[in-house]
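Hi Prof. W.,

I finally got the Methylamine utilization protein MauJ prediction working! I wasn't sure whether to trim anything, so I left the full sequence exactly as given:
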Amino acid sequence: MWIPYDVRASLKGESDRESLRLSRADGQRREFLVGFYLRNPVTQAWELDLVAEEGLPELPTRLPEAAFTVCPNEAGKLAEVIYRLPATSATEALHLAHDDLQPRLLAWLAQVGRGMAIAGWRVADMTHGARWRCTPFRPSAMRVDYAMAPVDADLAPVVDLFQRARNAPDAATRLLASFGVLSAALTHPAMRRSGADTLRISQDMLIHSGAMVLPDGFMDLPLTDLVARLRPKNDRLIAGGVLAPVSDDLTAQKRLALLANLADLVAHRLIQAELAARGHQVEPAPAMVAES
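And this is what came out:
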């Protein structure tokens, strides 16, 4: 079962409804805390290969009246960066803090040469006691027929592209890889039985990928039109045949994540259809172990 891996577009309330309501209704500037969980993209551990100590003083930011604190885990590695700043809403606080942390993270990365990524975040309205969180979840484990036949040699390069999309730690890479699968479905002989000519973007696809919130109107688009819509997004990430230096703010990153999720999901449906046409079992067995 396909699941979206990028959840940047969501912000889940964690406190009682009244606190959340009061916070959303209040347009006054007030203090927020925004904590960013950090991840090592190689080990997938929620920590960076940076030494951090308890009790370090707050550090200044480029934002007025704002500061941040570095927080270690039990191993003494940097696990979270917490911002304290004034804002009029949780969303504004998150975007302001993210826009300060991302280039700061790039500076740390450039200095030491280690992989670094933001894994998720939490936001707290200190006036109303409202709290939100956005973190990846671990889905249930699925059964698979380990004795099933390998993917045919002609189809393997296309499925390899899908593997890159599923393994990608960022939305841009996921979009590039899944867009490759969508394009292949229209032209590659290995995908001739994928149903690419009859596929339509369904409400289920939009809901499942999170792309229902996008204003572009993807509902009922044929694959050719979806590829045409996504091509400018794909081409923007490539310049002259190489990856382009692109830096997006959080709003643009959220949109890119939803588009990548949609392309990723459609790529999976097409590959499953091709496998089914070749006589492969494509429906996985039920989930066995639920994890949070």
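The mean pLDDT is 89. Does that look reasonable to you?

Thanks,
D.
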